Amino acid sequence: MSRLIIPSFGDIFTKLLTSESKKINYLQTFPSIIHHFFVMVIMSYVLLLTIFMSCLLTFSTTSTPGETSIFQIPLIILSVTCITIPALTIVVINQMFHLLVFLLTVKNCCQYFFPFHIFTRFLSRRNLPDFIWYLYAFFFVNELIGIFLYWAHWFILSFEVIDVIIIFYQTAYMILNIILIFLCPVCYFPIILSLWKSSNLRSEEHIYLHNYMFWQSVLVLFFKFMVIMLIIFISTAENLIIYLIAGTIAFDGLTTPIIIQISYLGCNRNNLKILLTSFNFKKFFAVIFGCTGRNVVHPQVFLVPVVT
Questions:
Q1: Which residues of the chain, if any, have pLDDT below 50?
Q2: pLDDT of residue 117
Q3: Alpha helix (H) ranges present in 63-127?
Q4: What are 17-53's pLDDT values in tens digits?
Q5: Measuring CA to CA, how many Å separate 78 from each of 46, 51, 61, 140, 192?
Q6: What pLDDT, in 10s, does the model give residues 121-172?
Q7: CA atoms within a 13 Å half-sphere pointing along the CA-CB vector of 195
Q8: Distant-in-sequence, close-in-space partners of 4: CB < 8 Å, separation ≥ 6
Q9: Helix 240-266 vs helix 269-278: angle between axes, to the nearest 10 degrees?
Q10: Is the separation of the CB atoms in 95 and 64 below 8 Å?
Q11: For 17, 85, 225, 285, which has the most beta carbons within 10 A of its beta carbon?
Q12: Cα–Cα distance between 217 and 173 in angstroms, integer?
């Protein structure tokens, strides 16, 4: 389903970035991380669709008149599980996205102005997969511990302990989702300024990939700033932090895949124009449903010279 929702994004994305990045040893980290952004987009759409379908199932199960039967209880448990786990996964994906953007920004900024070998090895293709999965495991465990402590404080922990835990989680969330987002465009701005001044000395691929990451971080900051202003406007002062965290979590779940797509397609305006002008719905559906006709396969004929 996600491939049908974004048919152009995946094909252009993979071919263009892979082919361009192979030419640049300096930017060898880009293809792996940006391809992982594409995987994040697909996973986000699948998880959002799962949550939507589970909400419909829960509503249809609980809205029937009368008492809840024994056959409805497994469906309710399944629906709640299919809502909770994808929602938790989306929260982890959003935090991973913000952290990867920041780490890639720091790496590229240091490597651009201080081209030492130590920066090339950081987030390289060799250690990137293990590094990403370690971060995913850390964020999942962190969220599970937070949920467990939040529910356990009613029975085990005192209010002083839970207040300290809440302050710790709120501070960590603000640093990861607000402060780092603000620092990304700031760190990338010297790179973009240097590229504009020496554009005739740089390759198009070099400028393109840095522009992609810069505008992606700018879009993240713009959308985050808009939702923060909206939450501050509609919430009260005493519950501001709670509303701010809950609002940004919900907003990030909806906007993160859109931001990745907009920033990518914005840096590929020429390819997007060509795609839109040459797009044909008839051919599109013919390819999807296999109506393009079959290729006829003939046996290969070898001509043997006759010796007289």
A1: 1-27, 295-304
A2: 58
A3: 72-113, 117-121
A4: 444 444 444 445 555 677 788 888 888 889 989 888 8
A5: 17, 12, 11, 21, 49
A6: 655 556 666 778 888 888 888 888 777 766 766 666 566 666 777 777 777 7
A7: 20
A8: 288
A9: 70
A10: no
A11: 17
A12: 18
Residue with tokens 């808009």: 226
Residue pair 37/69 in contact (Cβ under 8 Å)? The answer is no
Q: How far apart are CA 214 and CA 191, in angstroms?
A: 9
What residues contact residue 189 under an 8 Å CB cut-off, 6+ apart?
A: 214
Enter the tokens of residue 4.
């049908």
Alpha carbon of residue 92 to chain centroid: 10
Nearest C-alpha neighbor of 187 from the set 166, 158, 218, 159: 218
Ordered by start, the domain boundaries in the chain are 2-278
Total residues belonging to the chain = 308
